[in-house]
Amino acid sequence: MKIVITTYPQISCAEKLAKILVKKNFAACVHILPEMNAIYKWKGEIKNDNEFLTIIKTDKIHLSEVNKIILETHPFDTPEIIEVEGNILNPDYKKWLKESLWTE
Question: What is the pTM of this model?
Answer without folding.
Answer: 0.93
